[in-house]
Specification:
Helix content is about 20%, strand content about 20%. The chain is an alpha+beta fold and about 250 residues long. The strands form two sheets. Strands 5, 6, 7, 8 and 9 form a five-stranded antiparallel β-sheet that branches.
Length: about 250
């Protein structure tokens, strides 16, 4: 588990300016493109706090030390300091003891994390990843973990292709110039509210592309049907393969 302590927050809400006016004191919206080949520069090593999972008896929760450290961090720093908590591969046997997956331990931990987020809504944000190969979404434990989360996003990689030779289609790319998607992105839950309630999400199919430099999420388009020479010819020309329907 890793805690990143950021500098004091600034107001990044969009400001309304008159036409032709520029306000240099208004910060721009937070939007950055990260290069995965470059190392992140840490100005202050003390701003990063790694919390290892220490061995504990079977009847005790291995998450108590984590929660205690997070509470101490929030109480030590000023209220304007942002805390980013990253918990990768939750319940993975490589990092956690077997009894960590007991519902009385992991669900109580998520309840406590949710309470901390509600107590400090402007000071802390948490991101957790779960290996679905070990804990599928069909199990009751994973279902409860999703219900205790504000947002749930699933990445489903496509089966690896071992066919020789270049592919005959773009395999989900809109044009021949685009990179081939490597999996689907499913948004199951978001911290939003609508007339249908909260947490629901609907929309177009999404796919992700992971390259050496970046991670991109784009709309997913099915490749042309085999034998459709007109669609494949339009694909080779770099044109969309969507056919307009007249009513």
């Amino acid at each position: 588990m890793l805690i990143d302590i950021a500098p004091p927050a600034v107001n990044r809400s969009p400001a309304v300016n008159l036409p032709g006016e520029k306000n240099p004191n208004v910060p721009t919206a937070f939007c950055h493109t990260f290069d995965l080949t470059k190392r992140l520069t840490v100005t202050d090593p003390k701003a990063l706090n790694f919390i290892p999972v220490r061995p504990v008896p079977v009847d005790k929760s291995p998450f108590e030390q984590i929660l205690q450290t997070v509470r101490e961090q929030l109480a030590t720093f000023p209220k304007t300091t942002l805390h980013r908590v990253v918990i990768p591969s939750l319940l993975s046997p490589a990092f956690y003891p077997p009894h960590a997956s007991r519902p009385q331990h992991v669900l109580q931990f998520l309840h406590s994390v949710r309470a901390i987020l509600r107590q400090y809504p402007t000071q802390i944000v948490t991101m957790i990843s779960l290996p679905l190969m070990l804990y599928p979404r069909t199990t009751g434990l994973t279902t409860w973990m999703e219900l205790l989360s504000d947002g749930v996003i699933e990445l489903s990689p496509f089966p690896h292709s071992v066919e020789p030779g270049p592919p005959t289609t773009t395999g989900g790319a809109a044009t021949a110039q685009e990179e081939k998607p490597q999996g689907m992105v499913k948004v199951h839950r978001l911290p939003v509210f609508s007339e249908k309630g909260g947490g629901g999400i609907s929309g177009d199919d999404l796919a992700f592309i992971l390259s050496r430099r970046k991670f991109v999420i784009k709309p997913f388009n099915l490749p042309p049907v085999e034998g459709d020479s007109e669609a494949q010819r339009g694909e080779g020309e770099g044109k969309p393969t969507i056919v307009d329907i007249d009513f």
